[in-house]
Design brief:
Length: 124
Amino acid sequence: MDFSDYRTPPPSPTPPYSQLISPFRLFAHSWKVEILPEHYEICFNFLRHLFDLFVVGFLWTVSPPAKLVLEVLGVQGALKLWFHGMAMFFVSTVGMAGLLWLIQEYLPQFALIYGQAEDELKLR
């Protein structure tokens, strides 16, 4: 029996590397994941629909009070239509800027909610 300089026996023989299979390696080789191009289309469409939903929501909540204010002020005709259109443009622009700020401030939370919602929608 060979002994090293420290008077210890040599290490026991081990099987070749290819024969060692860890549970993780077995799982990694059995799990075939392929991301299809449709996945990115779903993500983009979902974001676009969320954006549309927020714009419509802002306009739906602000439009009736804006019409009432214009009516109380006595604005009529084309001028009323123009003021209402400009007010709705302002509301949607400021609302989207506010939403963007909110998402940037709480990015991890929104990413978690977005991922969960997208997974739920894909399962249906």
